[in-house]
Amino acid sequence: MYSQDLLKVMGTRLATEFLKERTCNEERLWKSVVATALEDCLNLSGTKNESYRKQDAHKWFIDGGGDFQNVCYMAGLDPVLVRNRYLTLYEEGVIIFTPVQKEWGKYRESYKVYRGDTTKEQRALIRKNIERIKCRIIKFKPKKKNVRQR
User: Fold this and answer.
1) How many percent of the chain have pLDDT more than 90?
2) Which of 15, 120, 140, 142 has the most neighbouring CB atoms within 10 Å?
3) How far apart, in whole angstroms, are the C-alpha atoms of residue 84 and residue 70?
4) Segments in the chain forming alpha helices (H)
5) What is the rounded (10 degree) CA torsion for 57, 61, 65, 71?
6) This prediction's pTM
7) Is the CB of residue 91 less than 8 Å from the CB of residue 47?
8) For 45-81, how does the pLDDT look when each residue is reduced to its tens digit (9 = 90+)?
9) Which residue, among 35, 34, 38, 30, has the nearest Cα to 90 in the 3D structure?
10) Is the dihedral of CA 67, 71, 74, 79 positive or negative?
11) On the CB side of 81, how many CA atoms lie within 13 Å of its CA?
12) In the chain, what are the domain boundaries?
């Protein structure tokens, strides 16, 4: 059900909670939500969508708000245990943001500011910043190898 790598990252206490027998289908569903969010945070992909999912999941764990707590309770998990384990993984560098993921975060935030600003001058400055960020992101993309077909 859960990968060995994910269970190892969770640590003994949390993994034990995930693997408990006699859970109803609804509880397993909510455990999958937590596990998917954790997997999103472990992802090192530099694509825009995956970077955004990682940022959202990271914020969800860090904030530990009502939605996070409700999901944990519905999953039969202690939200404090889950959040503390996440914070430990983040502090230990198991969960990291790659340079391109950080750039996508800057892009997203700049674009939110751009959409919310109404003055032409301010929007022009923000748009220039967005273009700079896009150029940095493009530099991270792997170059395709030119392969000759015979």
Assistant:
1) 65
2) 15
3) 16
4) 4-18, 25-42, 48-63, 66-74, 79-91, 99-116, 120-140
5) 80
6) 0.84
7) no
8) 989 999 999 999 999 999 999 999 999 999 999 999 9
9) 38
10) negative
11) 16
12) 4-95, 100-140
